[in-house]
Amino acid sequence: MIYLDHNATTPPAPEVLDAMGPVFVTAWANASSQHGPGQDAKRVLGAARATAARALGCKTSELIFTSGATEANHMALTGLLAAARAQGRQRLLIGAVEHSALLRLARSLTEQGVPVDFMPVSPDGRIDLTAAEALMGPDLALVSLMAANNETGALMPVTEVAAMAHAAGAAMHVDATQWIGKLPFAFADYPADAVSLSAHKFHGPKGAGALLLRQGRAFVPPVPGSQERGRRGGTENLPAIVGLAAALERLGDLASQAEHVAGLRDALESGLAELPGLHVWCQGVPRLPGTSYLRFGMVDADVVLQRLSRLNVAASSGAACSSGGSEPSHVLTAMGVPRDEALCAIRFSLGDETRAEDIALLLNSLPALIEPLLSVATES
Ligand code: PLP
Asked: Aminotransferase class V domain: which residues (predicted)?
């Protein structure tokens, strides 16, 4: 199997499984209990927090463990908005191509009366900074922007948008789910007040993530409780937290890994370039190293995915959470891509364990599979 769907999820690393396994047996107690086993669990939790904080370049007090990035995003938006409301600020500004769960949350906040605006993207998939600037204002409570788009891989201008948000007196949240684990990151010198991440995007377990929250930033916990310094209630999922820490600890030199993965991605794109009608989105903009989002002429994505699975290649037609439906990607739609073109979108997302042989094999067999389809579905 050639797995090219790393933006959806990644296989857990052996080090992660080795670290998690014993926790179920030796540290199963409640880390809030005063007895011996509880105190053992508390020590394991503290050690995992220290490891994760070191890898993320944050203070241990800034790290709130969550069940993943969806929850971290939810906590950031609702917790920071509630805190800003006390200062008379209400409005939320988010990117138009955020993750679908964050967009759904924004819709539900709108229904609850929160004013929400969207920063549009240019046809190149990146936030239009002039339009973003025009949406800033003294009523703004919070700006939320993803660091990198999960479909196109486009890197967003976080530094510029954070500077605008802060100049307007608003807080800045970044959904860095697709960035962390693929590209270098340190919260200490990051321009945001809050950052979301998810362990399963970098070989950690599913159901484990974190919200990094800048020390001193006003925040009203959406799930009150005594854990996580009163910022997220609920007995800690210790095996998952230990797995998250182990996944962060094993990350190597991300800059050189990114260069290697981008080289394979570029080899894939140039190998496919001879196919008539090939179109790659966001090719000329800063992108995640392993992401290639493309269409083969006007061949429907579902047809291509079926052929790929016959080759034992796992890819995706866009955001995993919304695949299966026949609605075009909201990301491509926001970029102005027509519906019939968007329905042909295929995402290959390579990872650190993708091998040159995998790409060579794909390039050997793919053209023969695609060419007959191209002659049927001619460009309109
Ligand atoms: N944000 C982005 C940009 C993502 O790509 C994803 C996962 O696909 C999420 C959030 C949700 O992460 P999780 O699966 O940890 O809830």
From this structure: 2-361
